[in-house]
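lol forgot to send this yesterday, sorry. struct tokens for the thing we talked abt
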């Protein structure tokens, strides 16, 4: 067994960590892939596949196989969720700045206009080409991180890594067991706690992925109202429902990434069946503190949660 090492990188607007029994050189090589994927998939990176799609004025754009796989998965989730997950939300997300020192709300009329440009059913995938109507903006921020985590985990497994954990800003993948044996324990962040330290629950994981979406991740409070980054593609505004956070557990981080967003938007009544359709388990924590599970999950509550 190789010595356990840990590397960290800042990509996709979040902190990415790989903790595995492998050489530090191999882990650095794995992390370096994140840089390449960022250049390929970021909507703000000029010459990226997504940038070229969004600036093609309705013309077909040849893209990489990675981009095509992500878009196909996103379209599948869009159809299954009846629009609760929508990659054409870019026209709306561009109106929101959740990092501003002095946040302001987008003008309602601008949001209404942006909503007219949101229809993932109009994305055309033919061969290696993607076509969207002029003015529409694709944003794969809600699904690409899952695909990248899958690919990096695959890279490590192919090189003999049998014990590892990847945490790409809430997208977690476990490889095998912990080095000393036994499953990895995945903590669920306490919304009002210190990130990475305070958890309200945990569950065991081996060779699977867990993806969490929550209101606490990014956002701002204005005039006593919390505006978070999880936008409802049907309204253009942050989702307003009973959900505080939702976690999807399955085998594909790509699918879990998109489905977790859809489950957050839909709420437990519709979200639990949607997760089952993709053969995933789901954990909901509601704003009133209730916890709802789709199928049996070995969830351990942390005291003082």
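and heres what i got for the seq, position by position
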């Amino acid at each position: 067994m190789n010595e356990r090492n840990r590397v960290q990188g800042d990509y996709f607007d979040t902190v990415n960590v790989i903790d595995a029994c492998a050489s530090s050189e191999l882990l650095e090589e794995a992390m370096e892939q994140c840089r390449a994927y960022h250049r390929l998939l970021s909507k703000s990176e000029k010459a990226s596949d997504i940038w070229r799609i969004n600036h093609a004025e309705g013309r077909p754009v040849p893209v990489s196989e990675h981009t095509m796989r992500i878009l196909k998965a996103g379209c599948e989730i869009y159809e299954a969720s009846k629009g609760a997950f929508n990659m054409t939300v870019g026209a709306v997300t561009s109106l929101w700045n959740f990092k501003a020192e002095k946040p302001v709300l987008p003008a309602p009329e601008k949001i209404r206009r942006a909503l007219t440009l949101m229809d993932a059913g109009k994305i055309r995938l033919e061969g290696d080409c993607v076509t969207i109507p002029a003015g529409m903006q694709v944003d794969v921020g809600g699904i690409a991180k899952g695909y990248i985590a899958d690919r990096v985990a695959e890279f490590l497994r192919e090189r003999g890594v049998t014990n590892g954990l990847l945490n790409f800003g809430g997208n977690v993948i476990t490889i095998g067991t912990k080095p000393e044996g036994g499953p990895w324990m995945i903590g669920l962040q306490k919304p009002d706690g210190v990130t990475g330290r305070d958890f309200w629950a945990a569950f065991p994981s081996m060779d699977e992925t867990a993806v969490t979406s929550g209101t606490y991740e990014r956002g701002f409070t204005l005039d006593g109202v919390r505006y978070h980054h999880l936008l409802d593609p049907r309204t253009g505004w942050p989702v307003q429902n009973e959900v505080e956070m939702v976690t999807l557990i399955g085998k594909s981080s790509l699918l879990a990434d998109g489905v977790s967003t859809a489950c957050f938007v839909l709420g437990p009544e519709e979200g639990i069946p949607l997760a089952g359709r993709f053969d995933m388990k789901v954990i909901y924590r509601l704003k009133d503190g209730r916890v709802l599970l789709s199928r049996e999950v070995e969830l351990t509550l942390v005291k003082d949660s």
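The chain has eight helices and 16 strands. anyway ping me if u want another try
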